[in-house]
Every structure is written in structure tokens, then in C-alpha cells.
Amino acid sequence: MRWWLFLCILHQDDTDVAGVNKWCKHIEVPGCDPAPDKPDKDGWMNGYIKNMKHCHLVLFLLCSFRSGQLAANETDSGKGKCDEVSRLEAQRAVGAAVAKLGLTLLEKLQPGSEQPNIIISPLSISLLLAKLALGARNKTEEKLLEALQAKKLTNFHETLSCLQEELTAKAVKMASRLYLIPGFSLNQDFVDRALNLYKSEPAHLTSIEEVNQWVEEATKGHITNFLSSLPPNVVLMLINAIHFKGEWQSRFDSRFTVKDIFYIDTKTSVKVDMMMGSKYPLSMFVDRTDGTQVARFPFQGNMSLLVVMPMPTQGNLSDTAAKLNISDMYEHFQSEMSMQVKLPKFKLEYKQDLRQALSNMGLDFLFTGPDLSKIAQGPMVVSGVQHASSMELSEDGAEASAATSLPLTRTIPTFAVNMPFIFALVDDASYTPLFLGIVTNPNPEATMEQSVEAKTESSMKATKGTLRDGTINDSPHRENMLSLLISLWSVFSLSHSQLEDTAEAEGEEEPVDLFTTPRTKLAAATSDFGYNLFRQLAARDTKASIFLSPMSISAVFTQLSMGASKRAEKQIYRALRYHTLQDTQLHDTLRDLLSSLRSSVKGFKSAERLILTRKLRLRLEYLNSVEKQYGVRPHTLSGGARDLKTVNDWFKQETGVDQVIPAPLSRNIVLLPAGAALFKGKWITRFSKSNKMENFLRDGEAPVLVPMMEQENYPIAQVPMEDGVSMYFFLPDEVTHNLTLIEEALTAEFVQDLSNSLHTVQVLLTIPVIKLNYNTDLLPSLSDLGLSEWLENTDLTKITSLPVKLNAVPHKVVMEMAPEGAEYASTMPAARGQSLSLKYRLDRPFLFVVRDELSGALLFIGKVLNPSYSERA
């Protein structure tokens, strides 16, 4: 990060005027008109003000923050004179003052369309203003100390000096220098104190090259070519340089960085490179009073990146920043826990004139007539405050998060930085912020897209449910975000407060390996692929119902991978989430899993087939191997009119699903990986057949009448079906098609945790009677899953020697939710403390998951926005 602070100095000493003129001529400073050697009749000062472009006292703050590998730092240990003032309490008091200054300044700065992000260095600003305070007198000194939050602090300069020294002994590189032109003199006492306290070493300003060389050396080469020219009429420059390049304690694996959505506001989003950690050790808490989530990402060397995500209903980010208290944040942080983490990768720059912001903080006197007479004789004014900074976050670090030794608890919560946030780079010991900022768009160069149009007027709602595991919300719309997940836990854990004996018996949770066999591990991988694909489809079409059968899609692409080169196979496996399995018998495992799922009792049928043109000159070995492994031979198109009927007839015979490929097959078809699935399971406990027509509410539209089925005393923990299949419903508190929270939170581990830990609650359950019929082309969404490079060069060398492009990925699913079941509802009385009056009504948009409990396989996932129109062609 780089900063410039330009101050104007006017001087009455004739000797110094001559020196200024000589220096100006020597280095040809633009706009520096020589002053008269003798005062004119109006006095030298008045005449000079009328005729000159001001000479300047220039203060530079060079600031840079970058995550990455840590370079060695050669510095002293910060002992000696600091022993007397190095008490932690004193340093934290100064750290709090630095934080207050930075947060106050941040409040005055507003992100805009041209500069959506703000990055400042409170420490560097404090050091610079502290040096000015050394040279100030009377009201100027008082006001500067007030802005520094230092009026009530004893030994402020000494403590700040020692804090600077101790931070320099860590990963922070700081340097300071006083540059003055030949012939211009400073008060020696100021020079001595600035050197002693803040290491501001005086030096002659002879050329831009000399300044740039010192800056480069002071920052260990991280800031180069700092100056391209000098401001007009400079007589003195104070330069403060600070640079931090940190090493994550647990780094992000670059192999898992993917394109993902960052929600700029409730209606706009942008694609960013998102760093991912599946079991990242993170400390965090939710401040429900202020409506914020706060997480701590530690660096080595006792530094941390704090991320604060406020709810949109809390006002703008700058207002929220003013309320933050860094020391309070540290008091609320709990021990680290394994979490699913998303953090955007970016490199940002920020440029801003801070004059107005500093004036609004009460420092306007700096620009009119400050008393800085301890620096030098003569009046000085600040002419402007130009600020430039940069920040970079990347994966570099010391340890992969997957290698963490933290045990896996039964629930893996999520913290996703996918909406505007406040950040602070903080020293863990003194709570001093080196950097503060606001990020509203991590990728300002990218094209913005329309996002979910959710309502943000309502505030965060209280709930009777207990968020037992600290699960964090992952949504761009916080009024839904928090209430959605709390609703999830309140629905599935309503009886928790009554189960005292159970809670006491459970004690502390033991680490659990959720998936232990090749089949359950493969089922988890295909499920995670399905959740990822579902999220991409939901982001592409926010106002449409969506239904998928991940097992069918995974199966057809696994067939395709058998014809791929090693490189292409690796790319496909990564998208399908196979890359972590290390299963040498993967194809056998998948075949057996599909066979077990396609039983008539479960009500699940699926069929997958590759459709290829004969023009590819297909390799017979590949066709035979697929048929031998999966019992179905890839279909070769004859090029005739009957091709479409032949393909659709086969899918209908295998699954009962008709018209999987709705349009006539083009003669340009090269490769179609097609799949179809049908689910018609039977509830263990049947619903009433009242067919009562009731309203189903919709977001921003009139409600529709749909037939409803209901059941009293229903075990809502999960809705069981025959042969070990269960259906999970996720319902928001409000009528909204924004289900991003649930969409983002769903993983194989998360749903397995629900299955393991939910408690049974007797409720009156009411759900719509619907038949779902969904047909879509999945090809546009595949590039968002990391397959864009593969789609450009499929490299299917075991299928054909010719280049192959996918024309489409047709996928059709049919599902029925009818009242029929194997038995009637139980008349068993409610458990002690529970009420049969509890109701759970799916009368507004909801999300559901159909899952095989034995294997953990995700059979179906869907989002229902309008049950009366559940068919999509």
C-alpha cells in the first residue's frame, strides 16, 4: 500500500529562501518559482503568497499488505529502552487508539462505483500524525493528540515507538526518513526526537532516484518506483513505509480455488476466484446485537486477518465499521473449529484524497493554519492528502488446511465470505490494526450480473430454536440468511430443550469419520458434485424451480471418463469430486452403488447413455469396455429420422421417463451425455387424501391454489420412506425465492450430520401434492464447475482420434409426491413437554433433498417455487 500526504510550508528566513531557490534550480522541480532574495515592499511573505505555487512539506505513507510466504526479517529484538513501556496493557491502550483512529477514518470514507473498495493503514497514519504532533504546539498539538485518541494516554509517543519496534521484529517491515532540501534547516530538537522515537532518519533530498532506491530497500523490494515526479516546491518530505506479507497458519490449497459468486448487493453479483477450505480451522462468532459475523484467519507470527460481515439491514459498511471494537472481538473469539470456508482471492488498489475525510474528523486546521513551529520556523499548511494503497490475498501459506490435526466434529459449519465485508489485519498481542478496509467487489474488472432480487427491508428475527453448533450463514441476504439456518435447526431440533437426559448423556462429541467404506465415500463425492451443480443452476436462474438427480449425471460422465486421456480423466474426476477417493476399483464401486439404488422398493430409477455420431470412427475397445462395466453400450447415431425415437424409447423403457431429448437430433450432433431419473417413493406414514386446495405463497407474485396433504404427529426430524430413503425439507421463515443459505450450506457431511443428530418432534405436517417434471441442458453450468478447460479440449483419445465437442448434456427428471404410504399415522401421545399443536407447513418456496440413508447417496435435490407449474421443458 502506498500513501502520499502533501503539506505546504512557507518560510520567512532569507537564507532559507535562497537555499530553496538553489535547490529548485538544481533538481528542476516543476512549478517551483524562485522567491525573491529580499522581501518586497509588501513583505516577503505576502508577496510570495501572491506570486508562488506553494512549496511543500511532503509526508509519504507507503503501505502494502500481501498474504504469502514470509521473508526473513533482519531487525533488533525491540528490547532496551522499551522495557519500561512495553507492558501489554499500555500497548493495548495505544492499539485501541490506533484502531479508533482508523475506524473513524473508515467511517468517513464511502465505497463508490469507481472505487468499490477501501484500504487504509491506521498504524501508518498514526505514526505520521504522531510525528506531526512532535512538531506541533498549543491547539495544534492538542487537536492532533485528540485525533490520535492519545490525550488520556501517558507515554503515548514512547509506547507507540516501542510498538513499532516490536512489530518490526515480527513480519512487519517499517522504515521512516526525513528528506529535506539542501539549505533548508529543521529544529534540531524535532530531528532528534523523530529519530529517537520513530527512526525518522534525516537525509538530503537530491533526486527522485535516491528516494525510490531507499524506499525499495526499506520495503525489501516490495515497493519499487514509488515516485515518478515530485510535487511542486517541496522543501521537506517525511516518508513512512510499512509492508506486511503474511504466511497463513493454514493455507488454502490452490487446486481447490474455483470461480464462485460474490454478491455485491441484493440484486447484483460478480464472479470471483474463491479460495476454499473444507475443514479450515477458524475462530468466529455471531454478534446478534450488531448483526455481524466475525471470523479470525491467523497468520504465523501472531498476526490475524479479521473479517466482519454485517447484514444488509445494518446500513452501509462504513457506519458498521464505526461501531467495531477490535479488543472486544478478541474476547469473543472461541477456540478454533473445523469449518467449510470460502474466502475471495484478489489483488485490489485504492486511491483517494483524504483531505475531506480528515477534515470531517476535526483535522481541518491542518489545511488552514496549523502551528508546526517545533519542526521549523514559519507557518505551514497542508495542501492535500493523496492516498494510494494495495492489498493482495492468495493461497500461499505454510500448511494445507486438509492436513490440520483438529478432529472432525459431527457438524461442519460454513463461513463464506461471499458478500461485502470489513477486514482488519491485526497484531494479536496489542490488538493494533496495521490495515483496515472495506471490500464490496473483489473483482471490479469483471462484468456484474443480476442476482437474486430478495427483500432486505426486514431485520434479523429472533427465534426459539437453538443454533447449537455455531453454524454460520452463507448467503447474500442476511435477513433470510440467519433466519433460514436458525429455522432449519429450530425445525429439526425443536425438542432439544426438552431432552435434558439425552443432552446430559451425550457429553462432549467424539470425532466421527462419517464415510468409512468405498461405497459411502463414493456416494458422498457424487452428492457433493450434485450440490455444487445445483448451486450453479440456481445462480443462473434465480426465479425458476430446479430439480436434479446427481447420481444419473455422475454416472454418465464416469462412462465418458473411461474414454479420456489421463489429463482429461483427472479434470473430469475433479469436477465429479472423485479426486479424493483413491479408489482403484471406482468403476466397480459405482456400478454396485447404482445397482443397490435402483431397486423397485426404493422407487428410484435412472438410466444414462452416451450418444455419439458414427462420423467419429469410434474405437471398438471403448464401446465394449463401457458395455461390460455398466451393462449399457454407448448409442451410435445412424443419421436417420428414427434416431430421436430410438433414443427416447430406450430411456422410457429403462425409467418410465418420456421425451428425454425433446427436440429433433441435429445432423451436427457429435456427443451427447444424456441421463434420466424417476423417483416415486412411498412414505412409511401415509398422508391424508383430503386434496384440500390451499394457497401456496410466492415471492412478489400472487399466491396459487394447490392441493395439500397433511399428517398429524409426523416425525419431522426426517420424513422416512420405504427401504431406507428419506426426504428432507428446508423452509425459509419468509416468502422468498432466495434459498441461497441452504444451497450454499448443503454438503454430504452436513446432511449426514443431520441424519445422525436430529431429534424426533411430533408436528402437524402439511405439504403440497405435486408432480415434478424437469428437463434441462446442463452444458452451460459445467464450465462453472471447473470444466471450462476440458470443454475446450475434451481429449477423448480412447473413444476416437478425432477432436470431440459436447453439443449438450440433456437431463430429465420426474418425481411424484403423493399421499400414499405403507401405514397410517400413529396415535401415540406426545412426549412430555411437547405440544401437538406445532405446525410445519410447506406453503411457500422450499428446498428438498431425497437421500438413501444406507449409502448416503443423494438421489434427488430440488427447489420448488411454484407447485402448480412444476414442469419445465
UniProtKB/TrEMBL annotation:
Signal peptide coordinates: 1-19
Residue span(s) of domain Serpin: 103-442, 531-867
A Pfam family it matches: Serpin
Highest taxon above the source species: Eukaryota
Region feature (Disordered): 454-474
Gene3D superfamilies in UniProt: Alpha-1-antitrypsin, domain 1, Antithrombin, subunit I, domain 2
Keywords tagged on the record: Signal
A GO term, aspect molecular function: serine-type endopeptidase inhibitor activity
SMART domains per record: SERPIN (SM00093)
GO cellular component, one term: extracellular space
Transmembrane helix found in the keyword field: no
Family: Belongs to the serpin family.
Name by which UniProt lists this protein: Serpin domain-containing protein
